């Protein structure tokens, strides 16, 4: 399962991570977000120990969604060394996310 990330934990979990981090910005009412959820959970398992895979509920946690200009969901951001290195807006095939994580490793 993907890690639940909040505004309170974002800095520690994402920006200070020594591994690449995939962050899925989503909301419960968003249909495409529900389509992406199983892919994100699979990525969490596939990259266990190599990358951090987490989700931010934008309804409950708006600070970092606003900071990174997330206007459409789902939006997936890839961080490495605390820096934003890649972005995917909308649902894409699992292979797209796998490639983005592998590029950051």
Q: Order of helices and strands, N to C?
A: EHEHEHEEH
Structural class: alpha/beta
Biggest sheet record: 5 strands, mixed
Mean pLDDT, all residues: 98
Strand order of the main beta sheet, please?
Answer: 1-3-2-4-5
Q: What Rg is obtained from the alpha carbons, in whole angstroms?
A: 12 Å
Give the strand tally: 5
Continuous helix count: 4
The N- and C-terminal alpha carbons lie at a distance of 20 Å
Query: What is the chains' assembly state?
Result: single chain
The global form is: globular
Helicity level, as a percent range?
A: 25-40%
The residue ranges in which pLDDT falls below 50 over 5 or more consecutive positions are: none
How do the strands and helices of this protein lay out in sequence?
Elements lengths: L2 E3 L1 H9 L5 E6 L4 H16 L5 E6 L5 H5 L7 E6 L2 E7 L4 H11 L1
Parallel strand pairs: 1-3, 2-3
Antiparallel strand pairs: 2-4, 4-5
Report on the structure:
The chain is an alpha/beta fold and 105 residues long. The protein is 39% helix and 27% strand. The chain is built from 4 helices and 5 strands; from the N terminus they run βαβαβαββα. Strands 1-3-2-4-5 form a 5-stranded mixed beta sheet, sandwiched between helices. A hairpin with a 2-residue loop joins β4 and β5. The longest helix is centred in the middle third of the chain and has 16 residues.
